Amino acid sequence: CVCGQMEGMVHSSFRRLSGREKKEMQKEILSILGLPGRPRPHPPLRPPSSAPLFMLDLYHAVSAEEDEGPGVGFIPESVSHAVLPTLSTHTPPLGTVVSEADTVMSFVNLVEHERDLLQSRPYWKEFRFDLTPLPQGETVTAAEFRIYKTLTLGQRANRTLHISVYEIQREKRHREPELVLLDMQSVPAGQEGWLAFDVTTASNHWLLHPRSNLGIRLYVETEDDRSLSVGWVGLVGRRGPRSKQPFMVTFFRASQAPCRPPR
Amino acid sequence: AASPNTQRKKKHKNDLPHNRTGLLDHTPVSNGRQACKKHELYVSFSDLGWKDWVLAPSGYSAYYCAGECDYPLGSCMNATNHALIQLVVHLIKPDEVPKACCAPTKLSPISVLFYDDNNNVILKKHRNMVVKTCGCQ
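The joint structure predicted for all components is written out below.
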């Protein structure tokens, strides 16, 4: 009968709920959905940037799978090569990592350092993400760094670019930092679109040791190992158009109840 | 004993219930009460003033199960075999055996997309959160 009263209240006169009842309703729904505390009023949202657009595509793909049942969720092109190891590049049903994720978080890069044409080679660009609000009790199942490549004038379209992403593991005064290779892709200079690099190892590392999060570093080289400036080959940084700024996506799965190891 | 020329009554097939509310389910079970079925309690996030915080969905359908699990002879009802037997035993010994109650028989997940305090975007999936079908348990 409580539900009946609630149903009547919601349908017929929701707006006439008193402030207190509305707060009760909000608290109830937040706790049911496991969402963090009450929403903070956000500054008026400028046109959505790349991360929300990507996450909205992912949301629709996941919801379609929930409605129809496993193996049906369709991934739009913008997401299709997400989470490299489980999804091929044609429009596949949702990969296991996406289907089984309990939480997916996107992070927009906060800090960018670049060594570009005004300095000596090798050129590189660094991206650092603020990962602080990570969900407790969940483990990283996959993470990727997404950066948009535009076409640039003067680029020989048939040239192949080798783009490699490293985790910055340890910084050393006046010397090159310690780097660990995370992923590398070879793309034709004439290609335009999103590139997704697998940074799961680094993301796991940062989840376990948040202070070790020194960001990632990206290099671009030609077939004959000549270093090229990241901006010059058309990779968009945080000063680029909002819908094409780089960001990171991390997939989490709630840690299963630790099963007792066989005696 | 029935007289020999009585037609053998066709045994009433006790097929298990369909799990969608059909015509029969709207028949009031007795004195105007409805049989056990799923009801919708929809709350829109924009009504809650969360439009700029929750990107999707636009609202939350908090379904719930309500209705009677009485045993109307001769009509289909949302109940499992066990519940049918329990109901019959309840009719025989109402003080000892409770009757079956209307509860979810299937649950489905819900996903919510929202901004966190750092303006990062989070997709949170909650398994077994929304009632899909109800039945007498």
